[in-house]
Amino acid sequence: MSASGTEDGGNLLERLRSQGTVRLGIAGEIPFGYIDKNGEFTGEAPEIAKVIFKRLGVPKVQPVPTEFGSLIPGLRSQQFDVVSAGMYINPERCAQVIFSDPDYRMRDAFIVRKGNPKNLHNYEDIFKKKAKMATGTAYAEIGYAEDAGIKQSDMLILPDQLAGLLAVEQGRADVFAGTTVTVHNVVKQRNSQRAEATEPFQAYVDGKPDIGAGGFAFRPEETKLRDAFNVELHKMKKSGELLRIVRPFGFTEEEMTDLTAKELCS
Fold first, then answer.
1. Which terminus of the chain has a lower count of CB atoms within 10 Å, N or C?
2. What's this model's pTM, rounded to 2 decimal places?
3. What is d(CA 143, CA 203) in angstroms, rounded to the nearest whole number?
4. Alpha helix locations (H) across 113-259?
């Protein structure tokens, strides 16, 4: 299959319409994009994608699960058509792919032992109290912690938030850092008796708030598809439909945003 023309914004949308199917790259992360226990493809990003692609004339979505770190290389090598994994939009990623405007903005939270005995509410607390921190593979939280003075070699890097909850329950870590929706979801789903989720807080890098806002990624030449996707996304934001779709995954009014990919890329 030849690469689509770069001059005219690409022809992927026309190809997808004629195939009737779009392949979505996901990283198996609850609540962003995953296969549930019934084998159904779901999550915050896939549910938005199902609605938007249907409106764009592409009725079927097909999941292509991969590691989070392989999402951008997989997109660029045409293993799937769009990254649908709630991926944070940042300048480094914007150099490799183009993004839709973000569909959510996220703050961080921790999983700690019941009662939060070490009183950990942000990364500076972890550093000051020399608490043992765990987080997920390739999570943005690694960078936030390093900015507060915590060495990556001192962190426990785990596959996902469930492993993080278990590490805290078993005492292998004092704290697991993740997005507020991710950590609140796992504590609630597991009905943990030994751990709890902290209140959300804003992470900082170089003294400035680091905006964790996620969107859909497209190959750089496919601007037509990205622009058509954005048009539908904006309508859903305006009507409140977006919040209705993502609410079952733990998202609230707090996570809704009017930021643009352009702002986040610069």
1. N
2. 0.82
3. 10
4. 123-128, 141-147, 161-169, 180-190, 223-239, 241-246
The torsion of the CA quartet 148, 28, 107, 101, rounded to 10 degrees, works out to: 120
How far, CA to CA in Å, does 28 sit from each of 12, 75, 224, 263?
25, 16, 28, 28
Assess whether 172 and 221 both reside in one domain: no
Rounded to an integer, what distance in angstroms lies between the CA atom of residue 28 and that of residue 163? Answer: 14
Residues 243 and 226 placed together within one structural domain of the fold: yes
| Number of domain units in the chain | 2
CB of 98 closer than 8 Å to CB of 264: no
**Separation of alpha carbons 80 and 71, rounded Å:** 9
Distance CA 154, CA 132 (A): 8
Q: Could you identify the residue written with the tokens 């609140």?
A: 184
| First and final C-alpha spacing in the chain | 33
Helix axes 161-169, 180-190, angle to 10 degrees: 60
Report the alpha-carbon angle 38-40-42, nearest 5: 125
The string of pLDDT tens digits covering residues 91-124 is: 999 999 999 999 999 999 999 999 999 999 999 9
One domain for residues 135 and 90: no
CATH number at residue 89: 3.40.190.10
68 falls within a domain: yes
pLDDT for 205: 86
Q: Is the residue at 169 inside a domain?
A: yes
Distances (CA, A) of 217 to 105, 198, 255: 16, 30, 19
**Long-range Cβ contacts of 247-250 (<8 Å, 24+ apart):** 249/31, 249/43, 249/44, 249/47, 249/181, 249/185, 250/31, 250/181, 250/184, 250/185, 250/188
